[in-house]
């Protein structure tokens, strides 16, 4: 098990990450995994990608955003701006050479932000139930006027958590900050290969989101894999294998082997 490292940002906050460099004889891009909201870098998707990358000698990096996992901070104080800046910091300071970014849920939004802000460092994108613009499309747009007013007054809203008895809390600051990073309202300037995995049984992120991402991307090389029985976590064995298969396919394509 590779040790966990910590990157100290200019504001003094520490971000936890794990980095395994590529074997010297292996060429090609590395993999950077970005987890979902309220998740961490040791989920099942990150674990299977870690094992696949190490087995193949490919550089692999995973991280915890501010307020997540082993990193400093509290989740409720985080924003899309903060988490994007966290991912940029790890991309710039830890990884070497071009990267394939794998983003799950919130990580799929951050992935698109990185693709726009660091296009020269991004070789390809793999989204897993990617959730760009969720603060607007899946939270704010679904609220009644009374609920919106209450959220503004209290600074937060609680919604049912399908994975826990405790509600998920979203802050009004997260909503307003998210509007600075909306990706599906304009073209997403990225022309590399993209693979998007989406479950038809995903009750958190509508499957149409994958189509919206594909439409917004300027890339002509976009593949969408929709799995009828897959939920938002996309973590059944067959689905996890699909993720590593897509990483292998993209890696081979980028190296001109297929």
Detail the topology: elements first, then pairings.
Blueprint: E1 5-8, E2 14-20, E3 30-34, H1 44-55, E4 60-63, H2 80-93, E5 99-104, H3 106-117, E6 122-128, H4 134-139, H5 145-154, E7 156-159, E8 168-171, H6 172-178, E9 194-199, H7 208-216, E10 222-227, H8 237-254
Parallel strand pairs: 3-4, 3-5, 5-6, 6-9, 9-10
Antiparallel strand pairs: 1-2, 2-4, 7-8
Helix pairs in contact: 1-8, 2-3
**What is the H/E string?**
EEEHEHEHEHHEEHEHEH
| Mean residue pLDDT | 95
Q: Unreliable runs, pLDDT <50, ≥5 residues? A: none
**Total number of domains:** 1
Largest sheet: 8 strands, mixed
Quaternary assembly: single chain
Helical content (DSSP H or I, runs of 4+): 25-40%
* CATH-defined architecture: 3-Layer(aba) Sandwich
**Cα Rg:** 18 Å
> What fraction strand?
15-25%
Can you list the strand order of the major beta sheet?
A: 1-2-4-3-5-6-9-10
| Number of helical elements | 8
| Total E-strand runs | 10
Q: Name the overall outline.
A: globular
Termini separation comes to: 32 Å
Query: For this structure, what is the CATH homologous superfamily?
Result: Alpha/Beta hydrolase fold, catalytic domain
Structural class based on helices, strands and sheet pairing: alpha/beta
CATH topology: Rossmann fold
């Amino acid at each position: 098990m590779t040790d966990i490292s910590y990157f100290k940002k200019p504001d003094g906050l520490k971000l936890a990450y794990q980095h395994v460099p590529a074997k010297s004889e292996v060429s090609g891009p590395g993999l950077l995994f970005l987890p979902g909201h309220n998740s961490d870098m040791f989920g099942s998707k990150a674990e299977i990608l870690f094992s696949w990358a190490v087995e193949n000698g490919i550089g692999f990096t995973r991280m915890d955003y501010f307020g997540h996992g082993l990193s400093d901070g509290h989740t409720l104080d985080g924003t899309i701006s903060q988490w994007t800046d966290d991912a940029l910091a790890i991309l710039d300071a830890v990884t070497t050479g071009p990267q394939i970014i794998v983003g799950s849920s919130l990580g799929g939004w951050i992935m698109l932000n990185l693709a726009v802000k660091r296009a020269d460092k991004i070789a390809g994108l793999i989204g897993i139930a990617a959730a760009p613009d969720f603060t607007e499309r899946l939270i704010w747009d679904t609220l009644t006027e009374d609920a919106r007013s209450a959220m503004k007054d209290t600074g937060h809203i609680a919604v049912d958590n399908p994975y826990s008895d405790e509600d998920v809390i979203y802050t009004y600051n997260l909503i307003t900050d998210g509007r600075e990073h909306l990706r599906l309202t304009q073209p997403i300037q990225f022309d590399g290969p993209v693979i998007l995995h989406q479950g038809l049984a995903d009750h958190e992120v509508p499957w149409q989101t994958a189509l919206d991402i594909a439409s917004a991307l300027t890339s002509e090389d976009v593949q969408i894999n929709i799995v009828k029985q897959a939920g938002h976590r996309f973590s059944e064995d067959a689905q996890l294998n699909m993720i590593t298969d897509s990483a292998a396919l993209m890696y081979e394509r980028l190296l001109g082997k297929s």
